[in-house]
Design a protein that fits this description.
The chain has three helices and 13 strands, in the order αββββββαββββββαβ. With about 230 residues, the protein is α+β, with helices and mostly antiparallel strands. Strands 11-12-7-13 form a four-stranded antiparallel sheet, covered by helices on one side. A three-stranded antiparallel sheet has the order 1-6-5. A three-stranded antiparallel sheet has the order 2-3-4, covered by helices on one side.
């Protein structure tokens, strides 16, 4: 009985086998791929010109008490408060015009040149203003027992640690303390002033719950609400 079932099923299986092969494995006689090349797609190349920086194209006015010395890509600025130097990258150049005006120009049209244009115009302006007028940065100490004093060439901070924090004051900076909690950092190098003030603030950044710490005078500390007590 079993042998009759096998012999009756075998012809049907052999008839359906080519259909399964063509459906799952593909049949070369049924599916044909065209080898005709397709038409080429045309394209046009456009030269995109970088926009000039709004900050970089502004002129820099030089006061009469400031001396400018330009040699190639090296700039030296000397004024009543001090002397600063800066080297420009090859993407930009400094041009000295009549009537005591400086302009920063791009030498190439690239993305990096556009970035350097505004950056070095700002650095140059900071140098001119720094040696003539100077800059200052103010900090405030907030917290019970927090105080600061100047001892010789050191700034001594009491910020709640087991020991006072002593910081060496750079030669080009002046530090003044008022009311034991107000610190004023002044000088002619804006970047050095900002770095020293940031280092002072880093010892005890203001926390968001009570506002304790060292903060800039114009800094706004976003306060958070503490955990509420369990309601009775």
């Amino acid at each position: 009985m079993a042998s009759s079932v096998v012999t009756s099923f075998q012809p049907r299986y052999e008839m359906l086998l080519p259909l399964f092969r063509s459906a799952f494995l593909g049949d070369r006689n049924v599916f044909k791929v065209s080898a005709t090349p397709s038409a080429q797609v045309g394209y046009s190349r456009k030269t995109i010109q970088c926009k000039e920086s709004r900050i970089g194209k502004q002129p820099i006015a030089v006061p009469t008490n400031v001396t400018i010395a330009l040699e190639g890509q090296d700039l030296k600025v000397k004024g009543p408060l001090g002397e600063l130097a800066l080297t420009y990258p090859r993407e930009v150049e400094l041009i000295k015009e009549d009537a005591g005006v400086l302009r920063v120009k791009k030498t190439v049209e690239t993305r990096r040149a556009n970035q350097m244009h505004g950056l070095f115009r700002t650095l140059t302006d900071n140098m001119v203003v720094g040696v003539s007028k100077g800059f200052e940065k103010k900090l405030i100490l907030v917290g019970v027992g927090y105080r600061a004093t100047v001892e010789g060439k050191e700034l001594v901070l009491n910020l709640g640690f087991s020991h006072p924090v002593k910081m060496q004051i750079p030669e080009s900076l002046k530090v003044k303390v008022e009311e034991n909690t107000r610190i004023t950092v002044s000088g002619y190098d804006k970047s050095e002033i900002g770095q020293f003030a940031a280092t002072v603030r880093k010892w005890r950044p203001p926390e968001p719950y009570k506002g304790k710490g060292v903060k800039y005078s114009d800094e706004i500390v976003r306060r958070k609400e503490g955990k509420a007590g369990k309601k009775k």
